[in-house]
Amino acid sequence: MQRTSHIIVGLSGGVDSAVSAWLLREQGYRVEGLFMKNWEDDDTESHCSAEADYADARQVADALGIPLHRANFAAQYRAEVFDHCLREFRAGRTPNPDILCNQRIKFRAFLDHARRLGADAVATGHYASVGGEPGARTLRRATDTEKDQTYFLYTLGQEQLEAAIFPLAGLTKPAVRRLADQAGFNNFDKPDSTGICFIGERDFRGFLGRYIDSRPGPIATPDGETVGQHEGLAFYTLGQRRGLNLGGDAKRPGLAWYVADKNMETNQLIVVQGHDHPALMSDGLVADHWHWIDGHGPDAPIRCTARLRHRQIDQPGWLTPLTAGRRRLTFDHPQRAVTPGQSVVVYSGACCLGGGIIETRTPVAESPISGVA
């Protein structure tokens, strides 16, 4: 990219995007910022948080002496991310809206808008790296393995990677904060955002309950013993411990309860005791809706490593093509809480190959639950 290139940085109000803009300006690029508003409702807390984030982005832009645009993508977000997630929750699956947001909003709606403003490229504060040549771009891990965000970016294609810049690829988070402090940014010590993007720090069940009808039912063990009452299967995910409101079992004192399965037909939430109970473990999975960075993916079985969630240590295994675009991933070692609706992302060394949506999991042989969907 030529130093005269026009780059628009997605300024979120956080420290990562702020330092990304500073680095690009220091490197001689023509830099502008854009603050995206991706969520709107009548929640006062949400509104105040968005305005506080915009104020932080404004302070960064002023400190850098760059223009700051503002765009509202809330309609696209609701139609292409939020509504999809609601359908998944209602079906008993656990979606990942942050991945879909990157695909449909941050590297589609934002990219299109930036191009209309005359940008040659867009930049964000993601911890990742783009390599390769035009037409054969690769998505690679960031230097800071604790912050690496390639898991959330596996849906990007060649067009998006050609136009994307990730200035933080070689930095650690402490180094980013030091640079922000040196640059005079007020947000240099701002905490990282956590939680699902449209929920933020709010109560998950309380928020979703505004959009999904509660359908209470029994909480049961794999052998059919009822041990409690759930508030609706949509509000729980596999491996969950908190919020079950179950006491201990005199036969197994001291062992906490965990969600092991959902029976959508009987409206039962299946639970077991013990963090590593066999019912929580899987030898493999089948995933569909695969997206490949190179556009096609491998056409034969390959050795790879995989992540089932952000920051998980890579797990080795075999990836095998099936029919209709589905693929089976068989782990070298059983994995805990393989969750339908979540993404599995596969790697070859530091290179992210792509990923898919978990459809089913293969329970370990000793599991009391079989054929889990």
TrEMBL record:
Family according to the record: Belongs to the MnmA/TRMU family.
Location of region: Interaction with target base in tRNA: 96-98
Reaction(s) the record says it catalyses: S-sulfanyl-L-cysteinyl-[protein] + uridine(34) in tRNA + AH2 + ATP = 2-thiouridine(34) in tRNA + L-cysteinyl-[protein] + A + AMP + diphosphate + H(+)
Originating organism: Spiribacter vilamensis
Record GO cellular component, one term: cytoplasm
Pfam family, one: tRNA_Me_trans
Renumbered residue ranges of the record's region Interaction with tRNA: 147-149
Name the record gives this protein: tRNA-specific 2-thiouridylase MnmA
